Amino acid sequence: MTIRTNRLNIHFNIPEIEKDFTFIRLERNQKERWWGAKELDIIMEDEGCKARAVCFAQHAYAMFYRSTITDIYEFLNSLRKKPEFSSLSVIEVFPESKYIGNANSICGVTLARILINSLAASKSRYSNFHFSNLTGSLLLVPSFSKKLYDSISVAEISITKTEFEKEFLLNVSVGTYRKKISLLHEFNTANVTRKEDIKKLLRRPEYYYHAGRNCLIRWLSFSDSTSDPKLTYIKCANNGRRLHTNFIEFDSLSNFESSRAGIFHSIFKSIKNELSKYMHVESFSRDFDHSLGLTHPIMKNPSQLLSKLDGTPMRIVDCIGNDESAELTRTLKKALAPYVSDQKQITIGKKDKVNTLNFRIIHNAAYYEDNGLKDEYLPSTDDYHRQHLTFEASNSGIHEAMVKTLIKEQLIKRDIAQGQLSLFDWLKLNATKVWIFAACDKKAK
Q1: Cys-Cys crosslink for 120: which of 50, 57, 133, 269, Cβ 3.0 to 4.6 Å?
Q2: Is residue 196 classed exposed, middle or buried when 0-12, 13-18 and 19+ CB atoms within 10 A define those classes?
Q3: Is the pLDDT at 246 greater than 70, yes or no?
Q4: Distances (CA, A) of 290 to 12, 57, 283, 437
């Protein structure tokens, strides 16, 4: 049995990279953040030689199509003459798959970052549609509807190296980006302390969404026009709320693609499809000498679940409060009946209860966004075990498989709160050593 990991082995085709691209490095005398630096915007403003991608850490690097720069020395001199570059060192650097001490080189990990960042660059044959990723990391919007919501989850993809510099790691984190107009509205009603925080947030780089590449692109601060606060986004968490993205989702294709595992899969495929000319990427796998099939689950049928519930009370919380949600509440109560020994164990109310399996009926996120209402979603805690049903997803009916899944997820959350895992009969598994669980596709060859 083999499990694919995020550890990568990358082989660069240096001759092809040098044939198609030119690289420059920008270095400051003082230690300042490159994030949102004006100098990087200027690189984008020069007609005919716009940077295809930029990444930065200690230094900033820009990659250009070689065909757009006829004379690299003339181009570098033109940058050095600009007042914004007076305190910068700007030089051409050359790609190397492994750093060997050459001061004028771009090493493997930086080369991988900038090539991956270029996945956000426009592929249009029309120059007026060209743009480049100027973020320092690749920002992808995993799942997006036609409506631009005030708050969106954005995948931030980056490449690092392991401690011993032998392997690359493909990292995917998810951050919250809010529309600038949303921050401006919050500023009007915020207290003094929060207003100061928002002022700092408004000085951050702004991005706009590009549907063609499904990514966020920097809005250039050197543009003639000002940004549209209804369209641009700023990296900023929702005040008082923590973002959580599951590693993997199975309930639908769109949800899988929005999970971190789905994003890994998408990026890995894009690298192979669009960057294979410049680098060959292989994922390290972990092999297991022995695996045991999942033949002893103890949460498969209602009687088993009833035993595991062991009289735990259930509560249905209607957070909508109209006739349709009331009917959905009655339907759910009827569907939960086979999983309790006493019907009194199922109650209905407007508030969650401690040490109870709470099933909350709410609208989906789009509904609250469209109507300017507070989202009723609440995460589970050690004391409050919560599972949510959205009215929009459940309006077509509640079936047995859905209810069984809801109860299983509640039991898993309860297990996590209690620091245990009761999905299996451990005696039958003879689990005396450390076990690693993974899903295996039997159809895969």
Answers
A1: 133
A2: exposed
A3: no
A4: 35, 42, 21, 12
Q: Which pLDDT score is estimated for 277? A: 93
- Mean pLDDT computed over every residue of the chain: 77
Asked if 368 contacts 151 with a C-beta cutoff of 8 angstroms, the reply is no
Q: Which residue in the block uniquely carries the two structure tokens 């009761």?
A: 422
CA 151 to chain centre: 13
Q: Could you give the CA distance from residue 182 to residue 184 in angstroms, rounded to a whole number?
A: 5
| In this structure, CATH architecture of domain 302-418 | 2-Layer Sandwich (3.30)
User: Which two three-digit tokens encode residue 5?
Assistant: 């990991």
Environment class of residue 358 by beta-carbon count within 10 Å: exposed (0-12), middle (13-18) or buried (19+)?
Answer: buried
The 10 Å CB-count burial string (b at 16+, else e) for 83-121 is eebeebebeebebbbeeeeeeebbbbbbbbbbbbbbbbb
Instruction: Find out whether 17 and 278 touch, Cβ atoms under 8 Å.
Output: yes
Q: Rounded to an integer, what distance in angstroms lies between the CA atom of residue 283 and that of residue 169?
A: 10
Q: Whole-angstrom distance between the N-terminal and C-terminal Cα of the chain? A: 11
Q: Give the pLDDT confidence score for residue 129 in this predicted structure.
A: 45
The amino acid occupying position 213 is: R
- With b for 16 or more beta-carbon neighbours within 10 A and e for fewer, the 279-290 pattern comes to bebeeeeeeeee
Which residues, in sequence order, are CB contacts of 70 under 8 Å at separation 6+? none
Tally of CA atoms within 13 A in the half-sphere of 94 that contains its CB:
9
Closest CA to 346 of 354, 355, 357: 357
Q: Which amino acid is at 82?
A: K
Q: Could you state, in order of their start, the residue ranges of all structural domains in the chain?
A: 2-284, 302-418
| Token pair belonging to 366 | 């789009």
DSSP string, 145-191: -SS--SEEEEEEEEEEE-TTSS-EEEEEEEEEEEEHHHHHHHHHH--
Burial degree of 238 (CB within 10 A; 0-12, 13-18, 19+):
middle
Q: pLDDT tens digits for 368-381?
A: 866 778 889 898 88
Residue of 90, 100, 4 whose CA lies nearest to 42: 90
* Nearest alpha-carbon partner for 246 in 258, 259, 264, 263: 259
DSSP structural state of residue 225 = S
Give the number of other Cβ atoms within 10 Å of residue 176's Cβ.
Answer: 17
Q: Could you report the per-residue pLDDT of 215-228, keeping only the tens digit for each?
A: 787 776 655 567 88
Residue 53 · residue 61 · CB < 8 Å: no
Pairing of strands 168-179, 2-12: antiparallel
Q: What is the pTM of this model?
A: 0.58
In 248-297 the beta strands, taken as DSSP E runs, fall at 279-287
